[in-house]
Design brief:
single chain; about 150 residues; eight-stranded antiparallel barrel; C8G; Lipocln_cytosolic_FA-bd_dom; Calycin
């Protein structure tokens, strides 16, 4: 259900870096490949300093369906990932929890999603105690975005 190309549409997080740099958000594309029927290979494509960067991640299956573990360097950097809701043809809402900190991300099959999907996302954001002042939407304009839309990785 999650495999293929996605665009990061919105994110809710108390991350101070995100708050300080929200004016610099760039269109971000994600390619998801299902490995061995369980784990996910994630490639995140975004622009940084006028260059296209690919960040690779590996989501390992956790105890229950729709739950994954993203391991970083060291024990303190593991992130629990939970698929909250997905419509494989249009959107996915995922929760990321690191310690007591929770973030919610909205992905779309295109860079724009319906108002109904945005409403669902915002309801889920409020349900975990986050608010609109820590909710950010990613740009859907510019030449860089066109490159991402046309990219068939």
């Amino acid at each position: 259900q999650l495999s293929g190309k996605w665009f990061l549409v919105g994110m809710a997080s108390r991350c101070s870096y995100l708050a300080e740099h929200s004016h610099q958000l760039e269109a971000t594309m994600v390619m998801v490949t299902v490995l061995d029927g369980q784990s996910l290979a994630i490639s995140v494509f975004r622009k940084l300093d006028r260059m296209c960067w690919e960040i690779r991640q590996h989501y390992l299956p956790a105890q229950a369906p729709g739950r994954f573990l993203l391991k970083g360097e060291g024990d303190c950097s593991k992130v629990d990932v939970v698929v909250g809701e997905v419509d494989p043809s249009s959107f996915a809402i995922l929760y990321y929890q690191k310690g007591r900190s929770v973030s919610v991300k909205l992905y779309g099959r295109s860079s724009r999603v319906s108002d109904a999907v945005v409403d669902k996302f915002e309801q889920r954001v409020r349900a975990v105690g986050l608010s609109e002042d820590v909710t950010y939407y990613f740009p859907t304009y510019g030449r860089w975005h066109m490159v991402l839309e046309e990219t068939h990785v």
